[in-house]
């Protein structure tokens, strides 16, 4: 990232800046939010914040990095000026910061803040006045009539001589610490010196600034005036070229910095070990996962340097990916409203010494990762997947840390914060694991704290030897040629070790990513215009190669902006010359891994591969710091006016601007050191030929590519006017709408699968994991939309909180016409009228969710509600209804909120409406353990009224997840409602009766079953008799059903299933009814189609397969097709007697045949002896299912065709008598041998084979 900003700068530093108190404008209170203003005035004046100003900066401006006064002022002293007296501690503090420009390029700042005595009389007396006012206020507060005399004395002591102090109560001692008396106290104010640089060399900059400060604090003046050193760093010290080291002089000693070559990991000079020290490996890895999945991340600490160090380290470890969203490691106090941003962000918030996290009001937490750096603790969003191979990865990082003498748990702060952290967290520590609400492997800290620590201690013991040998006591490991401090080398080495281990994870995980990159078919120009619609990576194929445990993480990671941008940059570069540094390094490593991997690169295993290339990286660094490549000019006397720049201990001098404002006229090293020019050429070459277009267009494209999908990288760091805030929010609203459009489109394309692909949209198939990922990201988007512009935050989920408000208002009036009714199943086919549709009710759906005991958190409830609404195809309608209460929306949201921008809101609801085009089972499939009420209706045939029916009917409902067992149905009602654990999608209904009473014959039209929560209604057609002596004498039947689609069209289109179908032997009627019986060609086609359906079923990924039962026993399934085979040319002995295929099968095997047909007879006997009364067609169905399961069908067909009795029972034209037709039938049936067919329990119940 820094490469872009340095493209034209070849100086080590661009600016030297001084910030502090402007004595001319006096004390101005800092601009803060209203809440803070109140807090600020309650503080004693020494603890308040005042405005700081940029007092001077040199040079005035450089063209390649224009000076941004507001941003630098805010970030050098983010909390404004601080005052102290002689009793307070006044240690200098170093911190770094980053300024991100509009185009995403960055500039770094390094600031040292120290305290200087206030010499201005006006300022001192102003402070004294503020104290008088403050004390008077406190006096009013404390001085109530009942109060004892104490407090009055307390405030009088200000004007009394000092000895009172000893006797005063403790509260007065506190006052004394925070008080200021002009006559006896010295007042100090903060001042800051800062370097603004194109690249981040924090270690070098820290040394330069500390030595400058030391020169001021020292009684003796420095060897040269300060101007000489500052001039030197601004104009005479170049940036070290790639792969080289550079030495230059500070005031008191040399400073060394070095830069990696183009084949090493990019430059990173912050100490990563500091982050591990502050958080511990386990927490760092959780934070890393959140960052990779582009959650909102808020870092919280009272040290600016810690915020910066953690933010920079975590983003550096993402190599080769780059954080694409808002990145503000230090958020100035005046920009707090930015936490409202409804986009992924990584921000750092100064805790202001406020230790109580619960008082911190954050606009949205549904998707937030909150990192309390000072208390060593991290709060995670729900449903965070595990990073692949997490335990082995932790083990490997821990070993690296231990080898550098660091503790893998980090330095845990004092025990009291630990207990506070525990009590605070335990409230939310809920795991809704079995349901969709997977609470992440949350806080290993609480769950596996002991075992983690035990494991790491064992590790320390094992590798203990290693840790002391390398960097032991001071001076133990000292290379005489070493040019930098030992500590610095240790930092470089620990950095490269850790970074290599992290980079190795990605090179292993994405070793074969190039295979899956989809190169655009059209020219680059049209590719850019349609970039949003294009898929650039074959996600489904990539995921299907991955080990199962990786999927939850990877499927979400592939959806991120950082992954898309990485692939875009891969598509944009033509050859190695073009590649940007990160990509080139990554590709080189991937190639190396693939050469080492003799196993086929596409077959990924979950074997953990450790990092092997640390040593070469370490050698490169050690070479650079033992042999310095370049030494800069030494500081020298400048042409200064005599008598200026005089040394005054403790005061930073007023520098002579004329000597510092311009550099040397001819820059010797610009000519002399070719590397700087090579580097510039490199950059130009990298940019050039990006698209083989002229420069302007090319720059425009590169810019657009960078900005794809990101609306705002960083807020404008200026004092914000309402109009600027409004504009920012407008950008957010537009961004949210665009994101919503892309998400809905992607989800539809995924769902509609092949048809959509043929219409030219993206990918082919979607896995369950992927569908879950997309729905989870839709939930996140809804949470972000609902938390944009909230007036007051309540609970962690803004969406659920809005729903609860709605529920409160309307729950009573629910009955008064707020309810609409779905136009569902309005049919006259006997099925529809029997089951009136469920009422559409937003409130009822909320109550369903509230009744699910397994979901404990608000975020979990909101997600479950979204899933349920998606499954019921009511999401858009429900949200429209929720937002139709404008008064409520006004009460909850600020004017600029997305939900109050009418046009955008309408478009957003319209996009959501498109989900109604496809069927989702995202509720049923995720909440698999919850109890669900089902309603069952048996519909008797209208033609023969079932009023005389005397037996007692029963049903047993089976689904993909479970089955109910036998349920008795009241004879007079013929319907029941029961509650049982989620059955999943329904597949079969077994129904029958107990054959009691005078008239135990029953003609059943169909059975309807409805899930009372999701409203899904299934129809199981029957159209057959149940009873002895009618039809095939069956007392029970297995019915295969299908989901009825809510439709408002005319009668003709029932569901995908015509009325007479989908149950055993159904098609027998079809054959006898239709005068033109099927010919052999049609029968062969029928068998082919049935087998084809089964083959296709097994070729789909497991999570996407439909119901196999439907393919075997449903309409035109395998059972029906074979029935046609056996019925073709069958001689019917008498005109009206029903002859069933089963009769033929029973007659077929005669004695002298027994040996060849032993297995066949075994199956026949087993089916005949079953206690179930399933009738002849039911038995035939069972035989076909068992034959398919055991791969025997082709063998049996061959047997039966040869069987002597076939000759007697079939006409000569029958299919079974045509050798060639039988052979082709056998070949078709043999294709089933490749598949492992598992039958649903209901199909083979009672048969012990």
Report on this model:
This protein has 1249 residues and is of the alpha+beta class. It contains 47 helices and 25 strands. Strands 1, 2, 3, 4, 5 and 6 form a six-stranded antiparallel sheet that branches. It has a five-stranded mixed sheet with strand order 10-11-9-12-13, with helices on one face. A hairpin with a 7-residue loop joins strand 18 (953-959) and strand 19 (967-968). Helix 20 packs across helix 30. It is elongated.
User: What percentage of the residues does DSSP assign to strands (E)?
Assistant: 5-15%
| Alpha plus pi helix count | 47
Number of DSSP-assigned strands: 25
Radius of gyration equals 39 Å
Helix coverage percent of residues?
40-55%
Task: Estimate the mean pLDDT confidence.
Answer: 76
* Shape call: elongated
Determine the N-to-C terminus distance. 67 Å
For the largest beta-sheet, the strand count, sense and barrel status come to: 6 strands, antiparallel
Given helix and strand content, the structural type is: alpha+beta
What are the segments in which pLDDT stays under 50 over at least 5 consecutive residues?
Answer: 1-7, 146-177, 415-449, 464-476, 668-695, 705-711, 754-766, 815-832, 1048-1076
GO molecular function, one term: guanyl-nucleotide exchange factor activity
Keywords: Guanine-nucleotide releasing factor, Membrane, Repeat
Family: Belongs to the RAB6IP1 family.
GO cellular component, one term: membrane
């Amino acid at each position: 990232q820094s490469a872009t900003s340095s493209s034209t700068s070849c100086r080590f530093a661009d600016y030297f800046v001084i910030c502090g108190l402007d004595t001319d404008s006096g004390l101005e209170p800092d601009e803060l939010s209203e809440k803070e203003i109140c807090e600020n005035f309650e503080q004693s004046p020494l603890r308040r914040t005042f405005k700081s100003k940029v007092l001077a900066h040199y040079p005035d401006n450089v063209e390649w990095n224009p000076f941004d006064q507001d941003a630098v002022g805010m970030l050098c002293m983010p909390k404004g000026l601080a005052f102290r007296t002689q009793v307070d501690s006044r240690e200098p503090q170093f911190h770094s910061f980053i300024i991100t420009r509009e185009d995403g390029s960055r500039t770094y700042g390094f600031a040292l803040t120290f305290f200087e005595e206030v010499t201005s009389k006006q300022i001192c007396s102003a402070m004294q006045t503020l104290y008088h006012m403050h004390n008077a206020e406190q006096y009013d507060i404390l001085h109530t009539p009942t109060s004892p005399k104490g407090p009055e004395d307390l405030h009088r002591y200000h004007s009394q001589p000092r000895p009172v102090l000893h006797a005063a109560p403790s509260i007065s001692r506190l006052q004394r610490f925070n008080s200021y008396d002009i006559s006896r106290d010295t007042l100090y104010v903060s001042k800051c010196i800062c370097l603004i640089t194109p690249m981040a060399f924090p270690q070098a900059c820290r040394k330069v600034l500390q030595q400058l400060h030391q020169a001021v604090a020292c009684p003796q003046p420095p060897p040269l005036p300060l101007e000489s050193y500052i001039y030197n760093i601004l104009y005479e010290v170049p940036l070290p070229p790639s792969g080289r080291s550079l030495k230059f002089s500070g005031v008191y000693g040399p400073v060394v910095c070095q830069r990696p070559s183009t084949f090493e990991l990019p430059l990173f000079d912050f100490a990563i070990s500091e982050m591990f020290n502050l958080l511990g490996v386990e927490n760092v890895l959780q934070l890393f996962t959140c960052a990779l999945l582009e959650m909102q991340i808020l870092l919280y600490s009272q040290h600016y340097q810690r915020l910066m160090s953690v933010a920079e380290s975590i983003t550096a470890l993402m190599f080769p990916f780059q954080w694409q969203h808002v990145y503000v490691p230090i958020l100035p106090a005046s920009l707090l409203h930015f936490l409202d941003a409804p986009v992924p962000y990584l921000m750092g918030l100064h805790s202001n010494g406020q230790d109580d996290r619960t008082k911190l009001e954050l606009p949205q937490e549904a998707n937030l990762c909150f990192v309390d750096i000072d208390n060593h603790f991290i709060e995670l969003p729900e449903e965070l997947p595990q990073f692949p191979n997490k335990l082995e990865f932790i083990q490997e990082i821990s070993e690296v840390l231990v080898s550098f003498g660091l503790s893998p748990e980090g330095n845990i702060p004092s025990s009291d914060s630990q207990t506070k952290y525990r009590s605070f967290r335990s409230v939310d520590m809920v795991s809704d694991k079995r349901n969709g609400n997977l609470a992440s492997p949350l806080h290993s800290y609480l769950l596996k704290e002991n075992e983690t620590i035990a494991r790491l201690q064992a590790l320390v013991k094992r590798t203990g030897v290693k840790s002391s040998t390398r960097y032991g006591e001071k001076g133990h490991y000292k290379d005489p040629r070493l040019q930098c401090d030992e500590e610095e080398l240790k930092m470089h080495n620990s950095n490269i070790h850790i970074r290599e281990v992290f980079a190795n994870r990605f090179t292993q995980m994405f070793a074969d990513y190039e295979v899956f990159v989809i190169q655009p078919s059209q020219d680059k120009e049209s590719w850019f215009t349609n970039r949003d619609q294009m898929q650039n990576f074959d996600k489904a194929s990539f995921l299907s190669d991955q080990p199962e445990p990786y999927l939850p993480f990877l499927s979400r990671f592939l959806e991120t902006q950082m992954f898309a941008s990485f692939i875009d940059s891969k598509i944009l570069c033509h050859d190695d010359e073009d590649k940007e540094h990160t990509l080139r390094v990554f590709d080189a490593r991937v190639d190396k891994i693939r050469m080492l991997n003799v196993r086929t690169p596409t077959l990924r295993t979950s074997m953990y591969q450790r990092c092997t290339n640390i040593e070469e990286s370490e050698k490169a660094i050690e070479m650079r710091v033992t042999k310095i490549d370049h030494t800069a000019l030494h500081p020298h006397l400048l042409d200064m006016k005599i008598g200026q720049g005089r040394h005054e201990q403790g005061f930073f001098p007023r520098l002579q601007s004329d000597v510092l404002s311009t550099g040397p006229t001819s820059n010797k090293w610009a000519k002399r050191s070719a590397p700087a020019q090579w580097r510039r050429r490199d950059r130009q070459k990298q940019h050039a030929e990006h698209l083989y277009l002229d420069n302007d267009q090319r720059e425009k494209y590169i810019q657009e590519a960078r900005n794809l999908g990101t609306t705002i990288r960083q807020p404008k760091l200026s004092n914000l006017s309402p109009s600027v805030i409004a504009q920012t929010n407008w950008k957010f609203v537009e961004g949210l709408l665009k994101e919503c459009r892309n998400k809905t489109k992607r989800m539809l394309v995924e769902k509609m699968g092949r048809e959509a692909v043929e219409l030219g949209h993206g990918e082919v198939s979607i896995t369950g994991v992927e569908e879950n990922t997309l729905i989870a990201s839709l939930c996140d988007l809804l949470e972000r939309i609902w938390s944009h512009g909230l007036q007051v935050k309540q609970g962690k989920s803004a969406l659920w909180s809005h729903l609860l408000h709605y529920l409160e208002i309307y729950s009573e009036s629910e009955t008064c016409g707020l309810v609409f009714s779905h136009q569902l199943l309005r049919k006259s086919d006997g099925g529809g009228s029997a089951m009136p549709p469920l009422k559409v009710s937003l409130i009822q759906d909320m109550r369903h969710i509230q009744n699910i005991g397994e979901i404990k958190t608000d975020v979990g409830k909101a997600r479950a509600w979204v899933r349920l609404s998606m499954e019921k195809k009511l999401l858009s309608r429900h949200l429209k209804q929720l937002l139709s209460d404008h008064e409520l929306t006004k009460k909850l949201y600020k004017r600029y909120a997305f939900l109050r921008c009418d046009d955008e809101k309408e478009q957003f609801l319209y996009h959501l409406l498109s989900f109604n085009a496809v069927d989702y089972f995202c509720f049923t499939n995720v909440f698999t353990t919850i109890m669900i009420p089902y309603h069952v209706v048996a519909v008797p045939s209208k033609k023969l009224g079932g009023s005389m029916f005397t037996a007692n009917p029963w049903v047993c409902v089976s689904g993909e997840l479970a089955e109910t067992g036998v349920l008795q149905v009241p004879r007079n009602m013929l319907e029941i409602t029961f509650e049982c654990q989620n059955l999943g999608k329904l597949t079969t209904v077994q129904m029958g009766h107990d054959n009691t009473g005078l008239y135990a014959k029953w003609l059943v039209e169909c059975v309807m079953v409805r899930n009372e929560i999701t409203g899904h209604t299934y129809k199981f057609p029957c159209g057959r008799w149940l009873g002895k002596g009618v039809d095939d004498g069956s007392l029970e039947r297995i019915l295969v059903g299908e989901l009825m689609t809510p439709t408002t069209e005319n009668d003709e289109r029932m569901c995908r299933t015509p009325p007479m179908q989908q149950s055993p032997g159904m098609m027998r009627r079809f054959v006898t009814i239709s005068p033109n019986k099927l010919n052999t060609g049609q029968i062969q086609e029928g068998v082919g189609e049935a087998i084809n359906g089964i083959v296709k079923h097994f070729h789909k990924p497991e999570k996407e397969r439909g119901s196999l039962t439907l393919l075997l026993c449903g309409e035109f399934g395998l059972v029906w097709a074979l029935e046609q085979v056996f019925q073709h040319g069958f001689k019917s002995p008498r005109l009206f007697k029903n002859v069933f295929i089963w009769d033929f099968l029973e007659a077929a095997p005669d004695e002298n045949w027994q040996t060849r047909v032993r297995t066949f007879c075994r199956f026949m006997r087993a089916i005949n002896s079953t206690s179930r009364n399933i009738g002849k067609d039911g038995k035939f169905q069972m035989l076909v299912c068992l034959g398919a399961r055991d791969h025997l069908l082709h063998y049996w067909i061959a047997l039966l065709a040869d069987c002597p009795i076939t000759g007697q029972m079939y006409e000569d034209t029958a299919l079974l008598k045509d050798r060639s037709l039988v052979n082709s039938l056998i070949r078709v049936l043999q294709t089933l041998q490749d598949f492992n067919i598992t039958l649903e329990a209901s199909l083979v119940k009672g048969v012990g084979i």
